[in-house]
Amino acid sequence: MKCTGNVDGKGRHVLLLPQPLQEIQNRVRKEQQTAPWRERYAMRAGCEATVSETVRAHGLRHCRYRGIAKTHVQHVLVAAGANVTRLSQHRPADHPSGQTTRFQNLCQQVRARTQTSHS
Q1: Is 0.90 surpassed by the pTM of this model?
Q2: Within 13 Å of residue 111, how many CA atoms lie on the same side as its CB?
Q3: How many CB atoms sit inside 10 A of residue 17's CB?
Q4: Reduced 3-state DSSP string for 71-103
Q5: pLDDT of residue 51
Q6: What is the pLDDT of residues 51-77, one digit of tens each?
Q7: What is the Rg, in whole angstroms, of the alpha carbon atoms belonging to the chain?
Q8: Which of 48, 99, 107, 113 sits CB 3.0–4.6 Å from 88 for a disulfide?
């Protein structure tokens, strides 16, 4: 009988932890279901999302320059660009939802100019 398994074709594996480790794992998994834990984790999730965005959308892992100083400048500019992008999408709480802000209009104009110049 062929079983879906690992690369070696040895079938499935079950990992049984020693009892003290299994108890710790069960306790931690139960704790992860609580609201305080999720609130603490939300901050980390936001940081991870920011790193992921700068890597995927802005190519942060591939530096265009050589040398630590130039690389640092690129990282700072990419981070500033990501912040500007986020700010352009933000709406103040007291702002009517149907209208765009002046800053959003400016960002849209800049985006349109850069898209036409790269085409």
Answers
A1: no
A2: 11
A3: 11
A4: HHHHHHHHHHHHHHHHHHHCCCCCCCCCCCCHH
A5: 83
A6: 888 888 878 888 888 899 998 998 898
A7: 24
A8: 107
